Amino acid sequence: MKQAGFPLGILLLFWVSYVTDFSLVLLIKGGALSGTDTYQSLVNKTFGFPGYLLLSVLQFLYPFIVDPENLLIGHHFIIVLSTVAFTLPLSLYRDIAKLGKISLISTVLTTLILGIVMARVVSLGPHIPKTEDAWIFAKPNAIQAVGVMSFAFICHHNCFLVYGSLEEPTVAKWSRIIHVSTLISVFISILFATCGYLTFTGYTQGDLFENYCRNDDLVTFGRFCYGVTVILTYPIECFVTREVIANVFFGGTLSSVLHIIITVVIITVATLGSLLIDCLGIVLELNGVLCAAPLIFIIPSACYLKLSEEPRTHSDKIMSCIMLPIGAVVMAVGFVMAVTNPQDCTHGQEMFYCFPDNFSLTNISISRFQLTTQLSVLNVSIFQ
Question: Which residues form the Amino acid transporter transmembrane domain (predicted)?
Fold first, then answer.
């Protein structure tokens, strides 16, 4: 919202969700047309080994680039402990279907986090000054925003794994599941984006939790919940990375020993890399434009256009012809903008409004009179 402009950002969020829905169904249709059951085999049959190699790199990099949980916790000991105790054991599962119930817990925790963000837009938002350009329709960094939104919706790298785990996998059943899932996802995303932006407007950071004060106990609980959600969902991303390595280097199968070794290496390198990064915004942008954009916009469209024998006027072909060049623009222009104009980052420092003469805005146990007094001091200090 900060990059695109609030009204345009809402429209773009709907558009990216629609494209995601369409391309997820398109992938499975492409698999049915080509007689393949994995994203890699689909691209391999459509574009040969060069396409297969390019897709393998993108699928490998997307979940591997960084483990975002670690950007929020900040204490290296807790990071290593949670990785060894929880993330690594869950990542050793061979069957992605077994992670379904675990992902359900993550969804419930996401709902709790959303409730916290919604509560703070009411209690904290009115006391933070709004930036001058907070409500303009569009901003020049809208393409960067599309990259971040693509990152939020990307799940194409494991859609064949999920499709194969269905009891009776059919294109019609998959389409119904995708429609419902995407609708829920865009609803949650809009609530997060709207509440976060209404609270902080132009001060919004790439990592929304960086905007809240550290002495806010309710938000601290939200940070904990988010850390748990990443611990529970990251194994699915590791599953995809491991599958890419197995397909490229080991013919698609791994022995028990190799399975353990490769999983440990993936988790270790990703964790070490994430310990060195404290800005989530640039990770979201680069991952979105370099990996998510081609996986959502370009590759599904290109595969379908080459495989389908439908007439050119067919709705799926028309939409694919629109998605493909837009994805190329988002990828190229978004990368240049992300490098030349990265998002602001606090590097772990608290925001200015967290220090109103050592008063706290977020301690909800204080009286209304005390809160009013503290806010008056804050407003005076800000405008001075």
Answer: 78-338
| Residue 138 Cα distances to 122, 131, 187, 256, 277, angstroms | 25, 15, 21, 53, 30
Within 13 Å of residue 86, how many CA atoms lie on the same side as its CB? Answer: 15
- Give me the residue spans of the domains in the chain: 6-351
Task: Locate 189 and state its tokens.
Answer: 């995303």
pLDDT in tens, 174-186: 999 999 999 999 9
Separation between Cα atoms, residue 103 and residue 99, nearest integer Å: 6
How many angstroms separate the CA atoms of 1 and 136, rounded?
11
Instruction: With CA atoms as reference, report the closest residue to 161 among 109, 110, 93.
Output: 93
Note the residue count of the chain. 384
Which backbone phi and psi does 25 adopt, to 5 degrees? Answer: -70, -40
Helix axes 315-340, 142-153, angle to 10 degrees: 120
User: What crossing angle do the helices spanning 39-64 and 256-275 adopt, rounded to 10°?
Assistant: 40
> HSE on the CB side for 128, CA within 13 Å?
28
CB atoms within 10 A of CB 5: 22
CA 224 to chain centre: 18
Flag whether the pTM goes above 0.90: no
Are the C-beta atoms of 19 and 212 separated by less than 8 Å?
A: no
- CATH match for 6-351 among 2.40.50.320, 3.10.450.50, 3.40.50.10490, 1.20.1740.10: 1.20.1740.10
Q: Are 327 and 293 in contact (CB under 8 A)?
A: yes
Closest by CA to 331, choosing from 304, 301, 357, is 301
| CA 290 to chain centroid | 13
* Alpha-carbon distances, residue 365 vs 117, 118, 218, 360 (angstroms): 19, 19, 12, 11
**Distance from the first to the final alpha carbon of the chain:** 28
Instruction: Pull the structure tokens for residue 81.
Output: 């402990």
The single residue listed with the structure tokens 């693509």 is 150
Contact 55, 299 (CB under 8 A): yes
pLDDT in tens, 292-342: 899 999 999 999 999 998 898 999 999 999 999 999 999 999 999 888 887
